[in-house]
Amino acid sequence: MSAQSSAQLSPIQRMLKGPLGLILVFAISVGASYLFVLSPRSLIVRLLLLGSLLLIYYMPQKGWIKLLFGGVMLLIVLPYLGLFNPFLMELGFQIAAFATLALGLNIVVGFAGLLDLGYVAFFAVGAYLWAFFGSQQIWHMDEPPGTFTIYPTFPFPAWWFWPFLIVGIIAAAITGIMLGFPVLRLRGDYLAIVTLGFGEVIRVLANNLDKPINLTNGPQGITPIQRPPLPAYFTSQEFLNQLSDIAGRPISLNDIYGFFFYFVAIVVLIIAIFLARRLDNSKLGRSWTAIREDDVAAVAMGVPLRRTKLTAFAIGASFSGAMGVIYAANRTFVSPETFSLTASISILVMVILGGLGSIPGVVLGAAIVTLLNIDFLQTLSLQLSSLRQGSGFIPLTSIPWSSLPTQLDPARYQRLFFGLLLVVMMIFRPEGIIPSQRQRLELHEEPVDEPEGAVIEGEIEPDHKLEN
Amino acid sequence: MAPLLDLQGVTKRFGGLIAVNNVNLAVDKGTITSVIGPNGAGKTTIFNTITGIYKPDEGDVHFDGQTIAGKRPDQITALGMCRTFQNIRLFHNMTVLENVMVGGHTQSKSTVLGAVLRTRSFKNSEEETRQEASRLLRFVGLPAGLGDQIAKNLPYGQQRRIEIARALASKPKLILLDEPTAGMNPQETESAIRLFRKLRDDLGITVVLIEHDMKVVMGISEYISVIDYGQKIAEGTPDQVRKNQRVIEAYLGRSAAAEIAAHEGAN
Q1: For A253-317, what is the HEC assignment?
Q2: Which of A51, A56, B33, B154 could form a disulfide with B158 if both were Cys (CB 3.0 to 4.6 A apart)?
Q3: At B44, is the secondary structure helix, strand, or coil?
Q4: Does A449 touch chain B (CB under 8 A)?
């Protein structure tokens, strides 16, 4: 598939062909980065940066060139720019975290066709696992929430974060299998309802397991949760001073953790992409697609239905188990409200928006939804409220900004934007922004010339002639 | 020699309906056997019971020397029995080649870990499955270069052939074909019959088919079992079955059969 003829290139790709295109992409990336240094708080520049990453993805150049460009952007340029505005690292962390979750859900929904509306439950398992063992909760199991003091030491030293990353993966995978067993015989709507219930069960458990034994500290959530230790050099005052000089603003230990979690999330995301790609393109991937297409035919062809479905649940869950552990350490706080049904739906929206079954699509979907969620609308609201405090008028009218009701804040309409986005997508591009090959063929049918039925019989002997 | 497939008193009920009633059926190795009967007689239910999609309520199914009643469909396929479906059940949105490769599932030795690490044995086994799949596509008479097409875009006759190729990929000892020539024109039927013969003659696979087209049934089968209302009402060679009074009654109705008999008697 790498050998694309120029006829198959999209208009963007044709524009970016050859050395000239390479220079163009390079110039745009450098330009966006430079603009970021000039105005580190601008939303438009942030979008421009994301756009240049997208351009790198769309470049028709060889794989290793794209990888080099993308790698330099993600691992060197963005962290450097993060010195000027720490929010960039937070944004990068959240996009990478949710992209990993969306990739996991994509295995279940996109590859195997099992609609899972409670996916965030596995994220909760990972998060609560490290929240319990990485905090002082073990010492407070017989105390009701909100009554205890915080000690200076922890039952598990902070480096246990790393082994617990593995434990989180295993625990989530086991939870995935536990969910998988009762729903093996269900399909479609029924499966969706049961998984939805399962997601709620986990959230309600987290909410209520503060008595009789206080495991989760109930709705108040668990805090503080330890972050993994960093090498002494990165936390030394000398290093912080060096960075502060470059950035022109004081860099704190908290900022260093921002960079750290950004890198951890990017590495986990890259591993997740790698795994998803290789699994999709294997015997297991074919079995997943086969049971999605027709499970009766699949099982008649020798695909073990139970095992194949359970593997999808387990592998999908393990992605979010790992991210859960990282997320708990990043926030140093977990509470049940993070793991609501809305979170599950959000992740599903990322998958559908980007393109069901499409790995690059799902990552892009996660980026767009996360941007909408934590950046775009919030920034608009902030700007609106600063206008409201000024004495200007709304253009073309005589109404002062200050009389604009706060009910019109864009951030309040997050769900509305989501809904609109989905409706528009389903009408104009139901296969997603970057559709998988299969989805494109499924939903945008082009009349295929029927190959002439030249019947060539028995030209070649299969090599498994049975000897009688 | 014990038959390759042996149904002993198989009964399958759906609630109060007895779809298959105490059917005995023996298929010898290397034969082409047809199961015929009027619509709704229970032929496909017999196939589903043999292949493990349904579990028989009573009776036993032996295949290749062991009992398979109660085994899962994928286990039965792994033992060397595969099938096609009455209404084509290809994986519509997969390519033709991928369809056949799924059929090779039980033959491929590749593992999840191998897939992640892209080990040499994984690559070899994938390549082998791919080669075998394209060989089978040519064997069933599909033109070259069809492998990358999406299965649902192909004409009906070719889809039937893909289904057979997919079943062959599991390297079966016995293949069950459920109305494989339904909806085909006479030329296509003609070439399909040649293909069924080739399965047996070239690959040594035992063939069992459900068929309505009497030209196909009489032309190809060495042995025929007739099912009506879930029961076996006759069996034997094509000639024996053709002359069997109960078969004529089942197909034409009692009065028509009597008329024919009277007419023949008058001659």
Answers
A1: HHHHHHHHHHHHHHHHHHHHHHHHHHHHCCHHHHHHHHHHHCHHHHHHCCCCHHHHHHHHHHHHH
A2: B154
A3: helix
A4: no
- The pLDDT tens digits of the residues spanning A88-118 come to 999 999 999 999 999 999 999 999 999 999 9
Residue where a domain stops, chosen among B171, B193, B215: B171
Chain A residues touching B204 at Cβ < 8 A = 465-468
- Cβ contact A100:A322 at 8 Å: yes
Give the tens place of pLDDT for each residue, A321-364: 999 999 999 999 999 999 999 899 999 999 999 999 999 999 99
Per-residue pLDDT tens over the stretch A156-173? 999 999 999 999 999 999
Does one domain contain both B74 and B178? Answer: yes
In the stretch 207-266 of chain B, residues with CB closer than 8 A to chain A read: none
Q: Do A438 and B93 touch (CB under 8 A)?
A: yes
Domain end residue (candidates: B150, B171, B192): B171
Same domain, yes or no: B161 and B125: yes
Nearest C-alpha of chain A: how many angstroms from B62? 18
Nearest to A259 by CA among A84, A407, A57: A84
pLDDT at position A383 is 85
Which parts of chain B register pLDDT below 50?
none
What's the mean pLDDT when you consider all of chain B?
91
Amino acid A447: pLDDT:
43
Residue B254 sits in the same domain as residue B232:
yes
Specify whether B9 is located in the same domain as B26.
yes
Mutate to test the interface with A, among B153, B156, B196 (most CBs of A within 10 A): B153
Contacts of A440 in chain B (CB under 8 A): none
Domain residue extents for chain A:
1-85, 88-348
The answer to whether the CB atoms of B108 and A283 lie below 8 A apart is yes
Interface check for B102 against chain A (CB to CB < 8 A): the answer is: yes
From A286, A451, A461, residue closest to B101, measured CB to CB = A286
Q: Tell me the mean pLDDT in the region A249-274.
A: 94
pLDDT of residue A454: 39
Q: Is B265 or A258 the better-scoring residue by pLDDT?
A: A258
Q: Please state the pTM of the whole predicted model.
A: 0.89
Per-residue pLDDT at A443: 62
User: In 3D, which of A27, A31, A57, A59 has the Cα closest to residue A44?
Assistant: A31
In this prediction, residue A161 carries a pLDDT of 96
Question: Is the CB of A297 less than 8 angstroms away from the CB of B91?
Answer: yes
> Cα(first)–Cα(last) distance of chain B, in Å?
44
Enumerate the residues of chain B whose CB falls inside 8 A of the CB of residue A460. 135, 138-139
Q: Do A293 and B139 touch (CB under 8 A)?
A: no
Read off the amino acid at residue A174.
I
Instruction: Clarify whether residues B166 and B193 are in a common domain.
Output: no
pLDDT at A6: 45
CATH number, residue B139: 3.40.50.300
Cα dist from B4 to A294, A374, B206, whole Å: 29, 66, 8
- Nearest chain B Cα distance for residue A44, angstroms: 39
CA A30 to CA A25: how far, in whole Å? 9
Q: How is the beta sheet containing B223-228 ordered, strand by strand?
A: B81-83, B174-178, B206-210, B32-36, B223-228, B231-236
Which of A283, A296, A303, A445 to probe the B interface (max B CBs under 10 A)? A283
Q: How far apart are the C-alpha atoms of B97 and A56, rounded to whole Å?
A: 32
Total domains present in chain B: 2
Please tell me whether residues B156 and B177 are part of one structural domain.
Answer: no
Q: What is the pLDDT of residue A441?
A: 66
In A, minimum Cα distance to B103 occurs at: A301
- Pick the residue from chain A with its C-alpha nearest to B134: A462
Select the residue of B141, B144, B169 nearest A457 (Cβ to Cβ). Answer: B141
Contact B115 A282 (CB under 8 A): yes
Phi, psi of B116 (to 5 degrees): -70, -45
What is the per-residue pLDDT for B208? 96
Nearest chain A Cα to B88, which residue? A297
Domain residue limits at B96: 89-171
